[in-house]
Design brief:
UPF0194_transport; 4 domains; Efflux RND transporter periplasmic adaptor subunit; six-stranded antiparallel barrel; BSH_CzcB-like; OB fold (Dihydrolipoamide Acetyltransferase, E2P); Elongation Factor Tu (Ef-tu), domain 3; alpha+beta; MdtA-like_C
Length: 425
């Protein structure tokens, strides 16, 4: 009998590998080692992609939003009197002041008087000449009336002679018909009538010409009188201006001459400051000069109070890199003093519904060409941007960013040449 291997085989019941403690322990160690390796690789790859890191406490972050941007400019200025006329001497003479510097004056009040004997003497001479011409004009009018009467008389006498000659000719004609007179006497009567008629016509014409000549001479003398009257009135005006009065209510700013001193014609004497009207004289950098315009809106800061104003004048020249602009107060405040320093905000432009972000030092660090935008991995990525108008607190973003993005608005040394920056808590 041949023996087989059935006696050697033993049937074993299969067991689950998770019920084997050794196998389970080895498997767990292997999985943990693999996970550690994967985490290390990911951490190494992430760290190798970051150029620098910066703490969140050291940077400022702002959100990009949509809104209205006001482009403005903050300038410093001083309060000056809008009306401060300087009064001049009307003629050469000796000045006598009735006020002192700093005195309050009213409109029409006597401020100074200039004693000018030369001007007063000239006025007296011209007044005498005016009186003389006025008398000559009156005499001329009387003479013209007399001459007109004589001319009229001559014309009337010639008319009488003409009438007498006409009657004599009629008698001669009747006598000639009755043959009482000779032909010679009749012809003589005819000649006398013709002569009388000619003399009458010449008398009338001479009277008209002489009357026209008299009228012309009278008008010429009248024009001389009128001209002299204007000259006297002008001198009288200058003499009246020797008493210098205040043109406004205000105060005396300064005296340009001393008491009882000799002054020349048109020499400055004093300045009157109108304290009821002030303006702000602001110095604007020359690179903003082209943006300024008349009637441009200005907000003036006076001790925390915002006062409205507008630009009324812009200087045509640049001095020390600045352009001087005059700003008028739309509401004149109280307690203003000359040379008082103030800050003003000039509203250059207003743009509605634009993409904007808070203004920060990143503009100076990159020249407004780049920004560091935050992503969802607690990183800031450097992206190119294009900026538009610059406001006092905000800047317009033309391209490169969208509404809702967050960027770093401050500057840091770690951001200088970094493309990706890790943000630490």
């Amino acid at each position: 009998m041949i023996r087989d291997t059935s006696g050697q085989d033993v049937q074993l019941t299969p067991q689950s590998p998770w019920k084997n403690p050794r196998l389970l322990k080895r498997t767990g160690l292997g999985i943990g080692a693999a996970a550690f390796v994967v985490w290390g690789l990911m951490s190494w790859q992430s760290t190798s992609a970051v150029d620098a890191s910066v703490s969140l406490a050291r940077v400022n972050i702002a959100a990009v939003e949509r809104g209205d941007l006001v482009r403005d400019l903050v300038v410093q200025g001083k309060v000056v009197a809008a009306n401060s006329p300087t009064l001049f001497s009307p003629a050469q003479g000796i000045v006598k002041f009735a006020v002192k510097a700093g005195d309050a004056v009213e409109k029409g009040q006597l401020l100074a008087e200039v004693d000018s004997p030369q001007l007063q003497n000239q006025l007296a001479q011209e007044s005498a000449l005016y009186s003389k011409l006025a008398v000559e004009l009156a005499r001329q009018k009387i003479q013209a009336k007399r001459q007109r009467l004589e001319n009229t008389q001559k014309a009337d006498l010639a008319k009488v002679d003409l009438a007498a000659a006409e009657r004599e000719l009629k008698r001669a004609e009747l006598s000639m018909e009755k043959q009482i007179i000779s032909q010679l006497d009749f012809e003589k009567a005819s000649d006398d009538l013709a002569r009388a008629r000619l003399e009458y016509q010449q008398a009338v014409q001479n009277s008209q010409l002489e009357n026209e000549a008299l009228t012309f001479e009278t008008q010429t003398l009248q024009l001389q009188v009128d001209q002299q009257q204007l000259q006297v009135e002008e001198l009288q005006r200058k003499v009246n201006e020797l008493q210098i009065v205040s043109p406004v209510n205000g105060t005396i700013g300064s005296l340009a001459a001393t008491q009882r001193s000799a002054v020349a014609a048109n020499a400055p004497l004093l300045t009157v400051v109108d304290l009821t009207s002030f303006e702000l004289e602001a110095a604007v950098p020359e690179n903003y000069a082209d943006d300024l315009g008349l009637a441009m809106e200005v907000v003036i800061n006076m001790g925390g109070t915002q006062l409205p104003g507008e630009i009324t004048a812009i200087a045509p020249e640049v001095i020390d890199g600045q352009v001087v602009a005059r700003v008028r107060f739309l509401q004149q405040p109280e307690n203003l003093r000359q040379n008082l320093r103030m800050t003003a905000r000039v509203l250059l432009e207003s743009r509605n519904d634009v993409i904007l972000v808070k203004r920060g030092a990143f503009l100076d660090q990159t020249g407004g060409r780049f920004a560091w935008k935050l992503n969802d991995q607690q990183q800031a990525v450097k992206v190119p941007i294009t900026i538009g108008a610059l406001g006092l607190n905000q800047v317009e973003i033309v391209s490169g960013l969208q509404e809702g993005d967050q960027i770093i608005t401050s500057s840091a040394d770690a951001l200088e040449n970094a493309q990706i920056v890790a943000l630490r808590d």
